[in-house]
Amino acid sequence: MIDEKAIELGRLIGQSTEYQAMRRAETGLREDAEAQTRLETISRLTREFDQMVAEGQTPEEAKAQEYEATLGEFEQSPVGQAYLVARANVDKLMNRVNQAIGQGIERGATSGIITL
What we know:
The chain is mostly helical. The chain has two domains: 1-32 and 78-116; 33-76. 86% of the residues lie in helices and 0% in strands. It has five helices and no strands. Helix 2 packs antiparallel against helix 5 (78-110) and helix 4 (61-76) crosses helix 5.
């Protein structure tokens, strides 16, 4: 029964306006060549920074500036803004869902009545 309820919850989340808006924003990202280039640059630099830190090195100032500039350009672009807002809204939805699940768990754990 828990699996069935989880599938139903997933279906409802997938149909939510927040999730649908994020899917549209993701499509917009995939269709925007500039956004893709910026995301690839951000991803590449993040991997380089992670590797340098793992090796005990400090990232070069020029690369750090490139990262900051590219991230800023992405965040300020209409496609980037749409995605970030949509992602934040889905995150808020999922936080509310997780809180509600937590409340349900607490009620279930303290209830003397077993329902299946």
